[in-house]
Amino acid sequence: MSIPYANTPASSGAAPLTPGAPVSAVDYDGRPVLVEPQILRLDGAVREASVPPFAPTVTHGSLADLPFDNAEAAPHAVVLSRRLPDGRWTDMTAVRFAAEVLAVAKGLIAEGLQPGDRIAVMARTRYEWTLLDFAAWAAGLVTVPVYPTSSVFQTRWILHDSGAVALVTETTGQASAIGPELQHLPDLGHVWVMDKGHLERLAEAGAGVPDGEVAVRRGMLGPATLATLIYTSGTTGRPKGCALSHGNFFAEVDNAIELLHPVFRSQDEEPSVLLFLPMSHVFGRMVAIACVRARVRLGHAPSLAPQDLLPDLEAFRPTCLLTIPYMLEKIYNSARARSEAGGRGAVFERAAAVARRYGEALEARQTGTGNGPSRSLKTARSFYDPLVYRRIRAAMGGRVRYAICGGSPLGRRLAAFYAGAGIEIFEGYGLTETTGASTVTPPLKPRLGTVGWPLPGTRVRIAADGEILLAGDHVLRGYWDPQAGGVVPATRDGWLPTGDLGELDDEGYLTITGRKKELLITAGGKSVAPAPLENWLRQHPLISQVMLVGDGRPYVAALITLDPDGTTHWRRMIGKHPVPPELLRDDPELAAVLQRALDEANKLVSRPESIRRFTVLPVDFTEEAGHLTPSLKPRREQIMRDFATEVEGLYER
Predict the structure, then answer these.
(1) CA separation for the pair 411, 576 (Å, rounded)
(2) φ, ψ for residue 332, nearest 5 deg
(3) What range(s) does the AMP-dependent synthetase/ligase domain occupy (predicted)?
């Protein structure tokens, strides 16, 4: 079934679908359409859902061609904006970006880097990251991202395992930290530092290299060529290098561009994306490539600190944000705190309730289960828009209409709120191994609380034990294993086991229910997936992080860390004097508030799955302490080791 984005029927002249063939994302009248998943059932349950590809398979060329193709097709189109040191932004045309890519690529060649060599990049999200990505590909190289927050041991492991011959760091400090490890890295022959102007020097060094040498190297690449090695963040065990090809990225971004037509093909205003999530993660890299592919203006923001990010949002004014649930929760909780501090807390709560009802009514109309917002609901929303919703949109730059959210489930309540506030959320689910998203909320047919349908060109299967299996051209070639001579296969019979647990409903929407390895089996034999309760509780303004425990124990309990901003605001609102966190954790009033939050969360599950006890930890989980991965997922084994005393205390009588 094809569903038009516009509220008009699809053209009756549309050609029938051919199984396995690419599906046009527009009908014969030029309107974009959605194609519903094909469903397979077993014993009455939906076991598989698939959507045919919207974009044709790329059979030649590589990502390295994109800047040069853009420069030829639309030389004066603004494809990026670069942030200057004084905070202003300067636009980069397609022809200018291609020239900078060419210059750095020639510099890499001049320094002796050979086709297939690995070059590591250790930097925050900034223009130079995207420049290096495309320059390295144009020189025939393979990029290896390293999180700038990685320890020296982690960095050495990635550099050694990948066999990187060059490293580009953002700061002198990062380069200095790896200095003592160079004796253990015989392949590493170059270390360049962005902040010392080394990319500019590379461009100067390549001035004598003919342009044709870059063209020759680009011509050697194809869709099957290795593009990048992305090392998993490693919640358990040592990170593995995911070997992603140029074809993997084309399958991912081309189908995402066609599906998310409002984001990448908007005719109402110039689409733009401000990227502030780490480019060391596949999510950020994928969206950056998609923006270059679709010629959507892309900007980079290196800092997530509010004092840095908010001015960038205000100056850049994106139409779409790439984000994670944590960021959307912080924006919501900060807006509520500001309202309460200004004596408008009750107004915010009423506005939030109206937004959620409005978002749910929109969902009902789009899915054919309701008539949409009533006249009175529209009136209420219009009343609260200047008081609450417009302020939230202004904090995001004022023009944001869409947000692509991944990393963990956002939750139905928050998704409905943002939809009602005028920001459509496209939730997705995927892995490094799948080059980003494998499922995405379909435009104009959302199902709040799910991670959407299979991305076009993707098949999703639920195994007998509930594990999610994925297949498609965006699934990685394999894992990097230098001992085995390169890349070793990662799939079984074409299906990638994800380690995640999920369910498909009757229309092909996927819901994530937990991690296979994170299931808690209580002493009574009850299997408990911790993620749903943890995600729900993390939305509370006083809570920063939550981790459930209870494996082999008589009941489920929770470790809770406090949100500093939330607790500061709470203290002020009730007139409580400032106290250190280690004392506040034993405060009976705080305990009562948290207990009410747990009572609400427990309504989502059965009695054996409910949280019976909790303790507040004296510190937050942080990446620096080893408790979170760079993508903010908990390292459960490390947390269990570091807080073993607190865990034992939860089961003392």
Answers:
(1) 32
(2) -65, -50
(3) 70-480
Residue ranges of alpha helices (H) inside 367-464 are 375-384, 390-395, 412-420
3-state secondary structure of 375: helix
pTM of the full structure: 0.82
For residues 494 and 557, give the distance between their C-alpha atoms in angstroms, rounded to a whole number.
39
Q: Is the pLDDT of residue 17 over 50?
A: no
Q: Which residue has the tokens 């498909």?
A: 504
Closest CA to 441 of 426, 429, 462: 426
- Are 424 and 261 contacting, i.e. CB atoms less than 8 angstroms apart? no
Q: How many residues does the chain have?
A: 653
558 in helix, strand or coil? strand
Task: Give the whole-angstrom CA distance, residue 510 versus residue 507.
Answer: 9
Rounded to whole angstroms, how far apart are CA atoms 258 and 261?
5
Beta strands 436-440 and 424-431, pairing class: antiparallel
Element (H or E) spanning 411, and its range? none
On whether the CB atoms of residues 518 and 524 are closer than 8 A, the answer is: no
Q: Which two tokens stand for residue 15?
A: 């050609």
Phi and psi angles of residue 405, each rounded to the nearest 5 degrees, phi first: -120, 130
pLDDT tens digit string along 226-276?
A: 999 999 865 445 778 999 999 999 999 999 999 988 888 776 778 999 999
Token output for 58 = 């790329």
Question: By the 8 A CB rule, do 452 and 428 touch?
Answer: yes
Instruction: Tell me the average pLDDT of the chain.
Output: 88
Q: How far apart are CA 257 and CA 261, in angstroms?
A: 6
Beta strands per DSSP E along 406-509: 424-431, 436-440, 453-454, 458-462, 467-472, 478-481, 486-489, 496-504
Per the DSSP assignment, residues forming a β-bridge with 458 are 51, 472
DSSP conformational letter for 363: H
Rg (CA), the chain: 25
Q: Which residue shows structure tokens 């290896």?
A: 144
- CA dist 651 and 653 (Å) reads 6
What is the torsion angle, in degrees rounded to the nearest 10, for the CA atoms of residue 6, residue 11, residue 16 and residue 19? -10
Triad 314, 318, 324: Cα angle to 5°: 100
Token pair 């359409």: residue: 33
Render pLDDT for 502-520 as a digit per residue (tens, 0 to 9): 999 999 999 988 888 777 8
Q: Which two three-digit tokens encode residue 81?
A: 């904006």
pLDDT at 366 over 60: yes
Place of tokens 């994306």: 273
Crossing angle between the packed helical segments 375-384 and 345-366, to the nearest 10 degrees: 140
Residue 107 is classified by DSSP as H
Q: How many CB atoms lie within 10 A of CB 186?
A: 9
Q: Between 66-73 and 127-138, two packed helices, what is the crossing angle to 10 degrees?
A: 100
Angle at 318 between CA 228 and CA 445, to 5 degrees: 80
> What spatial distance separates the first Cα and last Cα of the chain, rounded to whole Å?
59
pLDDT bracket for residue 166 (50, 70, 90): very high
β-partners of residue 436 are 431
CA 326 to CA 323: how far, in whole Å?
8
Dihedral pair phi/psi, residue 144, rounded to 5°: -130, 105
Reported confidence tier of residue 18, pLDDT bands at 50, 70, 90 = very low
83 φ, ψ (degrees, to nearest 5) = -80, 125
Using alpha carbons only, give the angle 88, 91, 92 rounded to the nearest 5 degrees: 135
